Automatic annotation (TrEMBL):
Transmembrane segments: none annotated. Coiled coil: none annotated. It comes from the Bacteria. This is Lrp/AsnC ligand binding domain-containing protein. InterPro entries: Dimeric_a/b-barrel (IPR011008), Tscrpt_reg_AsnC/Lrp_C (IPR019887). Residues 6-76 form the Transcription regulator AsnC/Lrp ligand binding domain.
Amino acid sequence: MVTAIVLISASAEAIPQTAQAIADLDGVQEVFSCAGDVDLIAIVKATDHEGIADIVPNHISRVPGVERTVTHIAFRSYSTRDTDDAFSIGMSS
């Protein structure tokens, strides 16, 4: 599985609608609205790089309101959350 982080600049008046339309696309796991250099960040997963190469330019970039995308491919995840969650199964706080 390949994960891509897609930074999206969107027209200000269309951010909520644009974000929802992107979130509804196959392969898009999450969409965050944010402050900073970009308006939206999408987490995209596909079985291979060709899938990412299809989803971003052929689907995300064509959503009304999207002005620009910059895509970063993730190599590896360094999260302790999954490990912590696995060890806490069945335990109550």
